[in-house]
């Protein structure tokens, strides 16, 4: 019989995860972008082999989307934005996370919570990327092209630039300056992974 449990994180609870993120950043040291992305991908691979609850799988799909955002040739994130997403993923480099992933059922709970916090902090980036993927899917199909084969092309450039400018304006409006405060977490909507993107895995 299914059991529904909901809980709310207090400011103190969130600070605990922010501290864990800082610790992971320190532990990551000089690891490069590909090492950070590979560590996040390894987490996904391990989760796919384990039997994890549905709510964890939903968060892992969001992590998959963040990785796709970095690897998507068509999206081509500016350097400052790439650093912001990589900073969110660095938690998954540290193998000694809050709850060891080997613990049955609960092993990925802290990862799921951290993913949710990262997604909230990056809501403007995610919204823009989601809209870009929808546009690419629609236009590629209209032009008789396969979305996964589009890569960089002229008809995507204007839409990509428009969406990235919107992303920056919304972040500046919310946080007040520049790219905002990457150490804070803002509330925001979640999203559905609908259109094609270079995802690593298909979540079960």
Indicate the overall shape: globular
Mean pLDDT across every amino acid position: 79
Counting DSSP H or I runs of 4 or more residues, the number of helices is: 7
Number of strands: 0
What is the string of helix and strand elements?
Answer: HHHHHHH
Taking pLDDT < 50 over at least 5 consecutive residues as the criterion, the unreliable ranges are 178-192
- The amount of helix comes to 55-70%
Task: Determine the strand fraction and express it as a percent band.
Answer: under 5%
What separation lies between the terminal Cα atoms? Answer: 21 Å
Give the total of domains: 1
Largest sheet: none
Kindly provide the radius of gyration, computed on alpha-carbon positions and rounded to a whole number of angstroms. Answer: 17 Å
The computed structural class is mainly alpha
The quaternary state of the protein chains shown equals: single chain
What can you tell me about this protein's structure?
- There is one protein chain.
- By secondary structure, the protein is an all-alpha fold.
- The protein has one domain (11-175).
- Helix content is 58%, strand content 0%.
- The protein is built from seven helices and no strands.
- It has helices at 11-28, 33-49, 54-71, 79-89, 109-121, 123-142, 154-175.
- Helix 2 runs antiparallel to helix 3 (54-71) and helix 6 (123-142) runs antiparallel to helix 7.
- The protein is globular and about 50 Å long.
- Mean pLDDT is 79; it is low at 178-192.
